[in-house]
Amino acid sequence: MIYFCAQKNRRDLVLASNSLNGIDYLEVPGMCGCGTQLAVTFLKDARALALAPANIVITGDTPLQVTAITPASDEDPRVITVQLNETGDFSRYTFSLVAAPDVVDPPEGLDPQLSTLSFSFKAGCPTPVDCLPAESCPPPAQTPPDINYLAKDYGGFLQVMQDRMSVLVPGWTETHAADMGVAMMEALAYAADHLSYQQDAVSTEAYLNTARSRISLRRHARLVDDMIGEGCNARVWMYLETLADGVVIPQGTEFYVRTPGLPAVIDPSNLQQVQLLQGSTQPIFASLQATQLFLEQNQIDFYTWGDADCCLPAGATQATLVGHLNSLAPDSMLIFQEALGPLTGSPDDADPTHRWAVRLTSVTTTNYQGLPLCDPLNGQPITRIAWSSDDALPFPLCLSSTTSATAGGQPLYNASVALGNIVPADHGIWIENESLGNVPAAPPAPDADTRCPCGATSSSTPAPIAPLPRFYPELSQAPLTFTIAYDATAPATAFPIGEASGALAQIHLLSDDGQSWQPVEDLLASGPEDALFIPEIEYTGAVFLRFGDDQYGQAPASGLSFTAHYRIGNGSVGNVGHDAIAHVIFAPHTLRSVRNPLAAAGGTDAESMEHICQYAPYAFQTQERCVTEADYGSMAAQISGVEQARGTLRWTGSWYTAFVSVEPVTRLTTPLIRGTTQRLNLLRMMGTDLAVEGAVMVGLQITLQICVDPAYFQGDVYAALMRVFITGNQCNGQTGLLNASQFTFGEMVYASPLIAAAQAVDGVLSASLTTFTRMDNPWVNGVAQGYLGLGPLEIACCDNDPDHLDHGLFTLQMDGGK
To answer: Among 2, 17, 51, 321, which residue's Cβ finds the most Cβ atoms within 10 Å?
Structure first.
């Protein structure tokens, strides 16, 4: 058989013939794989066949010989038995009946196609595959068309289609644009060009280092647990000079940057001036809370108790004011301002940097008897005020002085004043009732087909998920305002927002079903019923709103319409200078002036795309856990108030405890220990306990014998040495050699740097150590060995503080000099 046919009709044809016979099948009797006989079954009666061993040829890997043939019997006339010398191997064998040993034709009366068959001695052995292979002719291999798959633009796609058409329709050679076929190809090339660009854009946005959309970068950064900054708006203290008591400035009152030619207070009925002011591109500020104004707070004088040439020193947290200021109360705001130049008495010479805002923590207008507080010497009514140490004055504020000789040498009172009627405001204006349109209908769901490929049906096939409406609206105006909630009791120094990581978008949505939708940074912690959305900002400043998918956040229903209420104004553009804001739209005859004595601050720009690409991988790789001893030390050192720290893991009986020894910047306090413990508890490994303790400070006793050059005064050399070792150089900020910042955990203290530093001072002829030891271990002779060793949790110190001698003692024995 040289053909492979799916329909085998030869057997039926031979059965119908009267003159031909043929082999039907062959069996190997006996144990599987061990048979030495072949039972050959013919289509018809085989008793008339006269076969000898020479008429049988068996070929395979192992040659076999026919030793005997048992002809067909009357009981089974179609079967003959062939005896072999041995069994065959696992190869495929061929059984053939031939007329003679040297010919291939079958004996007379046998069909040529049915005189040969293939068989295996191991066919009866177990096998994991189907014993009947599928015998069908394989489909002819098709040569794919020659198409340039590198085409990516309009010209390339058009050329590919023209080349293909020349193969499919060789007789069509039309190239004119008006031809219908040419027009169709050009239209398809145009569509393919746009589709190719879309594919390239999608692949570009798939990676952090290639994305060109800031929204894509924001999502990539979120995948590595980095929340990018969207910036924050600026804040400012506004001073309003009132013309009457009890004037209330409502929350949301807008203040405008100075515009030449306009008055400070603009009548709302003067539409021309209002439109001119509101049409400006300068930042607009709005009050954060309603504030009541009082005449007595327009300008408040400091009371100096009759003394002259006074100043409020740096670090001051209290003062005395003139008058009974009953309108002042704790949490009231004041701004201290230098109003006149101390040397000239001119307002033009006042230092604009000598302005400071404080939030009052205490206001006293009566004495212990409940009587008005007065100066007992002259009966002058006074008010005592105090403010938080966080608002401590950073510079000396001149209250009174004597002018220079060129200015007349006259006493100057009220060089500085306190300003009340302070209104907090921040950058941004509200846009109300902006329609975002209706949620479109969802795309059609795919047809559900639960049929199996074989034609049966399956009830376990899940139904296809219905797609959600595609609603991704864009706000018409930008930039969107981000801010942090205002705390009306916090110190004034906390008013400008220095860190914008927690700023929230100033926007909310209302749907026509009455539901309110609120903004969030992400939807990962949201449920399917939470009406939340994410404002996403593109590099152009455009703001897009992304909703949930009914798994993480609620998805808006088709046909629902939304109205946006949001605020615009953000970033460093709001950090205007002092006295730059000068207008307010308010009722006439109520206010005289409006200004900002201090510059607006706290406005930060949104994180740039370049910064996101650089910082997001770094944030992902930043370690946020404590496992090793070094982890505990490094994480504790990052906490505010901790100078340095070291961690040690010790077995405490049933588990390991991480002991963290910290050196504070100033002193070790209970709040510092508690704060350090709380922070490290978030980072420590499970199963490890935590204990925060102070570092072991080891005081050093050091005595230097100094020989002074006769040309120098001994006192000058002594002072110079104390600057080198203890007090430091106040001119260049260099700390002393024995300053606490010069030592760290376990650091060995050597004698040679001390001698070298003393020898380098002008006027020192020679220097030698006479005492160099630990105060807790005085029998250690550091002079002889040249160093002092410390334990891993010990820090050397030599503060030379007479009130704390255990913190180290430094002594100079001076000889010679003047």
So the answer is: 321
